[in-house]
Amino acid sequence: MGRVVVDISMSVDGYITGPNPGPEHGLGVGGEDLHRWVFHSENSPDDRQFLEAADQHGAVIMGRRTFDFVDGPNGWDDEVSYAYDHDLPGRPPIYVVTHQAPESTRLTGFTFITDGIGAAAEAAQQTAGERDTVIMAGADVIDQALVAGLVNDLRVHLSPVLMGAGTKLFELVTSKVSLTQSDVVVTPYATHLTYRVT
Fold it and tell me: Is-contact 142 8, C-beta < 8 A?
């Protein structure tokens, strides 16, 4: 079975969105700065390798607030979608952790899991087989997976910005989680940090 990998962009002060994330601004006000490495990846092979790795993802997990933005009028479309890369052959199956599935959706290809992060990880890993399952958002889902001991690797794309406010990562992690650093790639737009969860 493949690994469960958290993959998230974060500011130096620990935020994964800017202030006031919502239907209009999924990344919060000014949150696009967290993903400058993505938007400049055409000119940076070191940044681009992390987008191209998305081609190897067997399944994806996200939270309901992330899905609500993705599925909303300002969400994914022909210009912006999974991994922001139109050269990829398609996106993997996506599992959404939620208390209640929506009655209808704009986009297709999402499976709603109402039994918690453990059930979502199990379903995603069954689908992914030997390929990685990636938890891409949001903070609560990532934190729940870390606390439950479901994560094998933590990949943080540390963006050179201080947001000052927004959605903090690791707020639900209240006990020690040991990490072993396995890779560091530094570019002008991000420091890509990979840790094994030990």
Answer: yes
**What six digits make up the tokens of 34?**
């967290």
Series of mean pLDDT values for 10-residue runs along the chain (198 residues): 95 96 87 90 83 84 92 75 53 92 90 97 96 93 96 97 96 95 95 96
What span, in angstroms and rounded, lies between the C-alpha atoms of 59 and 111?
11
DSSP bridge pairs for 156: 8, 193
Name residue 151's amino acid.
V
With H, G, I as helix, E, B as strand and everything else as coil, classify residue 9. strand
Tell me, what's the pLDDT at 191? 97
Contact 174, 100 (CB under 8 A): no
Q: How far is CA 86 from CA 46, 54, 152, 192, in A?
A: 18, 11, 28, 22
Measured in degrees and rounded to the nearest 5, phi and psi for residue 49 equal -60, -30
pTM of the model: 0.90
- What is the domain range of residue 190? 4-197
Separation CA 34–CA 13 (nearest Å): 11
CA distance 73 to 68: 10
As for how many domains the chain has, the answer is 1
- The CATH number of whichever domain residue 138 belongs to comes to 3.40.430.10
Nearest residue to 2 via CA among 143, 121, 146: 121
pLDDT of residue 50: 86
